[in-house]
Amino acid sequence: MAERRKKPMTRRLVQLYSALLYNAHLKGFAEGQIYTGPLKNLCVPGLNCYSCPGAVGACPLGSLQNAVAASADRPAFYVVGLLLLFGLLLGRVICGFLCPFGLLQELLHKLPTKKVKKSPLTRKLSWLKYGVLVIFALAIPAWFALQRLPLPGFCKFICPAGTLEGAVMLLLHPSNGALRAMTGGLFWWKFSLMLLILTACVFVFRAFCRFLCPLGALYSLLSRLALLGVKVDGERCVDCGACLRVCPMDIRTVGDRECVHCGTCIDVCPTRAISFRAGKIVLRGPALSERGDRP
Protein backbone atom coordinates (compact mmCIF):
# COMPACT_ATOMS: atom_id res chain seq x y z
CA MET A 1 0.00 0.00 0.00
CA ALA A 2 2.86 2.37 0.80
CA GLU A 3 4.32 1.73 -2.64
CA ARG A 4 0.98 2.51 -4.30
CA ARG A 5 0.87 5.85 -2.60
CA LYS A 6 4.45 6.62 -3.50
CA LYS A 7 4.19 6.22 -7.27
CA PRO A 8 1.38 8.71 -7.98
CA MET A 9 3.28 11.09 -5.71
CA THR A 10 6.32 10.70 -7.96
CA ARG A 11 4.24 11.90 -10.93
CA ARG A 12 2.95 14.81 -8.88
CA LEU A 13 6.51 15.84 -8.08
CA VAL A 14 7.45 15.74 -11.78
CA GLN A 15 4.43 17.94 -12.53
CA LEU A 16 5.42 20.38 -9.80
CA TYR A 17 9.08 20.51 -10.86
CA SER A 18 8.03 21.09 -14.48
CA ALA A 19 5.79 23.99 -13.49
CA LEU A 20 8.61 25.52 -11.44
CA LEU A 21 11.15 25.01 -14.21
CA TYR A 22 8.88 26.52 -16.86
CA ASN A 23 8.40 29.58 -14.63
CA ALA A 24 11.85 29.89 -13.10
CA HIS A 25 12.13 33.62 -13.79
CA LEU A 26 10.99 34.55 -10.29
CA LYS A 27 12.19 38.10 -10.77
CA GLY A 28 9.37 38.56 -13.27
CA PHE A 29 6.74 37.92 -10.58
CA ALA A 30 8.42 40.45 -8.29
CA GLU A 31 8.65 43.12 -10.99
CA GLY A 32 5.47 42.35 -12.92
CA GLN A 33 7.42 42.14 -16.18
CA ILE A 34 7.70 39.45 -18.87
CA TYR A 35 11.07 37.79 -19.44
CA THR A 36 12.22 38.41 -23.02
CA GLY A 37 15.71 36.86 -22.94
CA PRO A 38 17.17 34.32 -25.38
CA LEU A 39 15.48 31.32 -23.73
CA LYS A 40 12.14 32.65 -24.97
CA ASN A 41 13.17 31.47 -28.44
CA LEU A 42 12.77 27.89 -27.18
CA CYS A 43 9.44 26.11 -26.56
CA VAL A 44 8.60 24.13 -23.45
CA PRO A 45 6.60 20.93 -24.11
CA GLY A 46 3.48 21.74 -22.06
CA LEU A 47 0.90 24.52 -22.06
CA ASN A 48 2.49 27.51 -20.31
CA CYS A 49 1.80 31.08 -21.38
CA TYR A 50 4.61 33.11 -22.94
CA SER A 51 3.24 36.17 -21.12
CA CYS A 52 3.47 34.68 -17.65
CA PRO A 53 5.92 36.91 -15.70
CA GLY A 54 7.92 33.83 -14.67
CA ALA A 55 7.95 32.00 -18.00
CA VAL A 56 11.45 31.30 -19.31
CA GLY A 57 10.34 29.63 -22.54
CA ALA A 58 7.65 29.96 -25.17
CA CYS A 59 4.38 28.05 -25.27
CA PRO A 60 4.40 25.49 -28.11
CA LEU A 61 0.79 26.24 -29.00
CA GLY A 62 1.37 29.98 -29.10
CA SER A 63 4.50 29.43 -31.18
CA LEU A 64 2.54 27.25 -33.60
CA GLN A 65 -0.12 29.91 -34.07
CA ASN A 66 2.49 32.61 -34.56
CA ALA A 67 4.28 30.43 -37.10
CA VAL A 68 1.03 29.83 -38.99
CA ALA A 69 0.27 33.55 -38.86
CA ALA A 70 3.69 34.26 -40.39
CA SER A 71 3.48 31.41 -42.92
CA ALA A 72 2.73 33.80 -45.79
CA ASP A 73 6.29 35.10 -45.44
CA ARG A 74 8.28 32.14 -44.10
CA PRO A 75 7.70 28.40 -43.50
CA ALA A 76 7.13 27.12 -39.97
CA PHE A 77 9.78 24.40 -40.08
CA TYR A 78 11.20 25.04 -36.60
CA VAL A 79 7.94 24.97 -34.65
CA VAL A 80 6.41 22.07 -36.60
CA GLY A 81 9.63 20.08 -36.26
CA LEU A 82 9.81 20.72 -32.53
CA LEU A 83 6.20 19.69 -31.98
CA LEU A 84 6.79 16.53 -34.00
CA LEU A 85 9.85 15.79 -31.87
CA PHE A 86 7.88 16.30 -28.64
CA GLY A 87 5.02 14.19 -29.96
CA LEU A 88 7.14 11.30 -31.23
CA LEU A 89 9.29 11.13 -28.11
CA LEU A 90 6.70 11.81 -25.40
CA GLY A 91 3.20 12.06 -26.90
CA ARG A 92 0.58 12.65 -24.24
CA VAL A 93 3.04 11.83 -21.50
CA ILE A 94 3.54 15.59 -21.73
CA CYS A 95 -0.10 16.07 -20.68
CA GLY A 96 0.22 13.69 -17.74
CA PHE A 97 3.62 14.78 -16.44
CA LEU A 98 4.87 18.03 -17.98
CA CYS A 99 1.91 20.39 -18.26
CA PRO A 100 1.43 23.00 -15.50
CA PHE A 101 -2.19 23.61 -16.47
CA GLY A 102 -2.83 19.87 -16.25
CA LEU A 103 -1.47 19.95 -12.70
CA LEU A 104 -3.78 22.84 -11.80
CA GLN A 105 -6.78 20.94 -13.16
CA GLU A 106 -5.95 17.85 -11.11
CA LEU A 107 -5.52 19.88 -7.92
CA LEU A 108 -8.88 21.60 -8.48
CA HIS A 109 -10.52 18.21 -8.96
CA LYS A 110 -9.34 17.18 -5.50
CA LEU A 111 -11.71 19.70 -3.90
CA PRO A 112 -14.37 17.74 -1.98
CA THR A 113 -17.50 17.89 -4.16
CA LYS A 114 -19.64 15.46 -6.09
CA LYS A 115 -17.91 14.51 -9.34
CA VAL A 116 -19.18 13.99 -12.86
CA LYS A 117 -18.06 10.54 -13.94
CA LYS A 118 -16.93 9.72 -17.46
CA SER A 119 -19.66 8.49 -19.76
CA PRO A 120 -20.53 8.13 -23.46
CA LEU A 121 -21.31 11.87 -23.40
CA THR A 122 -17.87 12.88 -22.11
CA ARG A 123 -16.29 10.55 -24.66
CA LYS A 124 -18.14 12.37 -27.43
CA LEU A 125 -17.22 15.76 -25.98
CA SER A 126 -13.55 14.75 -26.13
CA TRP A 127 -13.70 15.28 -29.90
CA LEU A 128 -14.32 19.02 -29.39
CA LYS A 129 -10.64 19.73 -28.87
CA TYR A 130 -9.87 18.67 -32.44
CA GLY A 131 -12.32 21.29 -33.68
CA VAL A 132 -10.64 23.88 -31.45
CA LEU A 133 -7.25 22.84 -32.87
CA VAL A 134 -8.38 23.12 -36.49
CA ILE A 135 -10.44 26.31 -36.18
CA PHE A 136 -8.70 28.43 -33.55
CA ALA A 137 -5.09 27.24 -33.64
CA LEU A 138 -4.75 26.67 -37.40
CA ALA A 139 -7.55 28.06 -39.59
CA ILE A 140 -7.96 31.49 -37.99
CA PRO A 141 -4.20 32.27 -37.92
CA ALA A 142 -3.86 30.99 -41.51
CA TRP A 143 -6.81 33.07 -42.76
CA PHE A 144 -5.46 36.27 -41.25
CA ALA A 145 -1.95 35.42 -42.45
CA LEU A 146 -3.24 35.77 -45.99
CA GLN A 147 -4.21 39.32 -45.09
CA ARG A 148 -0.86 39.98 -43.39
CA LEU A 149 -2.61 40.30 -40.03
CA PRO A 150 -1.15 38.04 -37.30
CA LEU A 151 -3.97 36.65 -35.14
CA PRO A 152 -3.36 33.68 -32.80
CA GLY A 153 -7.01 32.68 -32.51
CA PHE A 154 -6.79 30.31 -29.55
CA CYS A 155 -4.57 32.58 -27.48
CA LYS A 156 -6.68 35.63 -28.25
CA PHE A 157 -10.16 34.23 -27.70
CA ILE A 158 -9.98 31.12 -25.51
CA CYS A 159 -6.78 30.10 -23.71
CA PRO A 160 -7.51 29.95 -19.96
CA ALA A 161 -3.83 29.31 -19.18
CA GLY A 162 -2.92 32.56 -20.91
CA THR A 163 -5.61 34.46 -19.05
CA LEU A 164 -4.55 33.11 -15.66
CA GLU A 165 -0.78 32.98 -16.04
CA GLY A 166 -0.36 35.98 -18.31
CA ALA A 167 -3.15 38.54 -18.00
CA VAL A 168 -4.20 37.99 -14.38
CA MET A 169 -0.64 37.70 -13.05
CA LEU A 170 0.41 40.89 -14.80
CA LEU A 171 -2.73 42.82 -13.87
CA LEU A 172 -2.34 41.95 -10.19
CA HIS A 173 1.05 43.61 -9.96
CA PRO A 174 0.85 47.14 -8.49
CA SER A 175 3.14 48.61 -11.16
CA ASN A 176 0.84 47.61 -14.03
CA GLY A 177 -1.93 50.13 -13.49
CA ALA A 178 -1.76 51.18 -17.13
CA LEU A 179 -2.54 47.61 -18.18
CA ARG A 180 -5.55 47.47 -15.87
CA ALA A 181 -6.87 50.66 -17.47
CA MET A 182 -6.69 48.98 -20.89
CA THR A 183 -8.85 45.96 -20.04
CA GLY A 184 -12.01 45.72 -22.10
CA GLY A 185 -14.66 43.35 -23.34
CA LEU A 186 -12.22 40.79 -24.72
CA PHE A 187 -10.43 40.45 -21.38
CA TRP A 188 -13.67 40.02 -19.46
CA TRP A 189 -14.86 37.43 -22.00
CA LYS A 190 -11.67 35.42 -21.50
CA PHE A 191 -11.74 35.93 -17.73
CA SER A 192 -15.31 34.64 -17.54
CA LEU A 193 -14.44 31.69 -19.77
CA MET A 194 -11.43 30.92 -17.57
CA LEU A 195 -13.61 30.89 -14.45
CA LEU A 196 -16.10 28.61 -16.18
CA ILE A 197 -13.37 26.17 -17.25
CA LEU A 198 -11.68 26.13 -13.84
CA THR A 199 -15.04 25.56 -12.15
CA ALA A 200 -15.75 22.68 -14.53
CA CYS A 201 -12.40 21.14 -13.54
CA VAL A 202 -13.60 20.90 -9.94
CA PHE A 203 -16.40 18.55 -11.01
CA VAL A 204 -14.95 16.93 -14.15
CA PHE A 205 -11.45 15.44 -14.13
CA ARG A 206 -9.18 17.56 -16.36
CA ALA A 207 -12.16 19.09 -18.17
CA PHE A 208 -10.09 21.49 -20.27
CA CYS A 209 -7.56 18.82 -21.18
CA ARG A 210 -10.28 16.37 -22.23
CA PHE A 211 -12.63 18.68 -24.12
CA LEU A 212 -10.89 21.84 -25.27
CA CYS A 213 -7.08 21.70 -25.27
CA PRO A 214 -5.71 21.85 -28.84
CA LEU A 215 -2.18 21.02 -27.67
CA GLY A 216 -3.43 17.75 -26.19
CA ALA A 217 -5.29 17.12 -29.45
CA LEU A 218 -2.09 17.66 -31.39
CA TYR A 219 -0.04 15.33 -29.21
CA SER A 220 -2.81 12.71 -29.28
CA LEU A 221 -2.40 12.38 -33.05
CA LEU A 222 1.11 11.05 -32.40
CA SER A 223 0.39 9.13 -29.20
CA ARG A 224 0.44 5.68 -30.80
CA LEU A 225 3.90 6.38 -32.23
CA ALA A 226 5.44 7.95 -29.12
CA LEU A 227 8.55 6.33 -27.70
CA LEU A 228 7.59 6.85 -24.06
CA GLY A 229 4.32 5.78 -22.49
CA VAL A 230 2.10 3.12 -20.98
CA LYS A 231 2.06 -0.08 -23.02
CA VAL A 232 0.01 -3.29 -22.84
CA ASP A 233 1.45 -6.78 -23.26
CA GLY A 234 -1.20 -8.47 -25.40
CA GLU A 235 -0.11 -11.95 -24.32
CA ARG A 236 -0.72 -11.16 -20.65
CA CYS A 237 -3.90 -9.12 -21.09
CA VAL A 238 -7.17 -10.95 -20.36
CA ASP A 239 -9.50 -8.04 -21.23
CA CYS A 240 -10.87 -7.82 -17.71
CA GLY A 241 -11.49 -4.06 -18.03
CA ALA A 242 -9.94 -3.13 -14.69
CA CYS A 243 -7.70 -0.56 -16.37
CA LEU A 244 -10.63 1.14 -18.10
CA ARG A 245 -12.68 1.30 -14.93
CA VAL A 246 -9.97 2.99 -12.88
CA CYS A 247 -8.93 5.48 -15.59
CA PRO A 248 -10.49 8.94 -15.15
CA MET A 249 -9.90 9.83 -18.83
CA ASP A 250 -12.12 8.88 -21.77
CA ILE A 251 -9.94 6.05 -23.03
CA ARG A 252 -11.17 3.04 -24.96
CA THR A 253 -7.86 1.20 -24.63
CA VAL A 254 -4.75 1.86 -22.56
CA GLY A 255 -2.39 4.15 -24.44
CA ASP A 256 -4.93 5.47 -26.95
CA ARG A 257 -5.40 9.12 -27.96
CA GLU A 258 -7.13 10.06 -24.67
CA CYS A 259 -4.57 8.39 -22.39
CA VAL A 260 -2.26 10.79 -20.53
CA HIS A 261 -0.08 7.89 -19.31
CA CYS A 262 -0.49 8.63 -15.61
CA GLY A 263 0.17 4.97 -14.82
CA THR A 264 -2.81 4.45 -12.52
CA CYS A 265 -3.82 1.40 -14.53
CA ILE A 266 -0.49 -0.36 -13.85
CA ASP A 267 -1.37 -0.93 -10.19
CA VAL A 268 -4.80 -2.48 -10.84
CA CYS A 269 -3.91 -4.89 -13.64
CA PRO A 270 -4.35 -8.42 -12.20
CA THR A 271 -2.05 -10.04 -14.77
CA ARG A 272 0.62 -7.32 -14.74
CA ALA A 273 0.13 -6.79 -18.44
CA ILE A 274 0.66 -3.01 -18.30
CA SER A 275 4.01 -1.27 -18.01
CA PHE A 276 5.50 2.16 -18.51
CA ARG A 277 8.15 1.92 -21.21
CA ALA A 278 10.68 3.90 -23.18
CA GLY A 279 10.78 1.80 -26.32
CA LYS A 280 11.62 -1.72 -25.09
CA ILE A 281 13.00 -0.50 -21.78
CA VAL A 282 10.58 -1.08 -18.89
CA LEU A 283 10.60 1.89 -16.51
CA ARG A 284 7.78 0.63 -14.32
CA GLY A 285 5.68 -2.51 -14.46
CA PRO A 286 5.94 -6.29 -14.75
CA ALA A 287 9.69 -6.49 -15.30
CA LEU A 288 10.28 -4.60 -12.06
CA SER A 289 7.63 -6.59 -10.23
CA GLU A 290 9.19 -9.90 -11.19
CA ARG A 291 12.36 -8.82 -9.38
CA GLY A 292 10.37 -8.36 -6.20
CA ASP A 293 9.13 -4.76 -6.48
CA ARG A 294 5.49 -5.67 -6.95
CA PRO A 295 3.46 -2.60 -8.03
Overall structural domain count: 2
Query: How are the strands ordered across the major sheet?
Result: 1-2-3
What would you call the shape? globular
Radius of gyration: 20 Å
Could you list some keywords that capture this structure?
about 5% strand, about 300 residues, 2 domains, mainly alpha, disordered N terminus, 3-stranded antiparallel β-sheet, Alpha-Beta Plaits
Set down the secondary structure blueprint.
Blueprint lengths: L1 H21 L3 H6 L28 H10 L7 H13 L3 H5 L2 H10 L10 H6 L2 H18 L7 H5 L2 H13 L4 H5 L3 H19 L3 H5 L2 H7 L7 E5 L9 H5 L17 H5 L5 E5 L2 E4 L1 H4 L6
Helix pairs in contact: 3-4, 3-8, 6-12, 8-14, 10-12
Provide a concise account of the structure shown.
By secondary structure, the protein is mainly alpha-helical. The chain has helices at 2-22, 26-31, 60-69, 77-89, 93-97, 100-109, 120-125, 128-145, 153-157, 160-172, 177-181, 185-203, 207-211, 214-220, 242-246, 264-268, 286-289, and strands at 228-232, 274-278, 281-284.
